[in-house]
Amino acid sequence: MHKPSGVLMRYSNIKYKLSKNALIMFVGINPHPGSYKRKVPFSNNKMFWYLLSRAHIIEEPTEYLMNDKKLVQMYEGKFVQEYRLNFINLVDRPTSDVSKLRKGEERPGAARVFDSIRIYKPRLVCFIGKITYEKFSGSKHTDYGYKQPIYGISTYVCRFPIRGPAIDRIKELKALIKAARGIDARARV
């Protein structure tokens, strides 16, 4: 089984950011070729980063996040250390659309995500989009919201960053960070 070291041998351009006791571990499906080239998840269409900023999960202004070099600096530095966030994908191979993933291609990644949750123990796990959670869990039709905990860790399925009104996704992310901080405060007592 693959150790959650942060990269796979074949597709290693986007490094996973994993650390013990993160507030939120974000789980994506796979990188877009543009994001893969930039070495930062969701950097092809930066809406994910803008939403994190508007929800005050990260404190970088939109103008800063628009700059690829500054986004890389934030992802390589503050993302884990200061913001206590983690990121991992189910599939490392970049595609322009999830429909281009091969059947079963997510299985090794699902095992890697399970291992990462068990080892790193984030306060909350957030699957980015229904398809990501369905591929991970093997379920066919899921809804947004809280799911069964994984290893006792709260698990949530959020809306995909580029679909739907931004205000709804910002509210959702604000509620997630509030929940994660509440779990963190209780864990530290």
From TrEMBL:
UniProt entry keywords in alphabetical sequence: DNA damage, DNA repair, Hydrolase
Pfam families documented for this protein: UDG (PF03167)
GO annotation terms (biological process): base-excision repair, AP site formation
Molecular function, one GO term: pyrimidine-specific mismatch base pair DNA N-glycosylase activity
Residue span(s) of domain Uracil-DNA glycosylase-like: 19-140
SUPFAM superfamilies registered for this protein in UniProt: Uracil-DNA glycosylase-like
Protein name: Uracil-DNA glycosylase-like domain-containing protein
Taxonomic path: Archaea, Candidatus Micrarchaeota, Candidatus Micrarchaeia, Candidatus Micrarchaeales, Candidatus Micrarchaeaceae
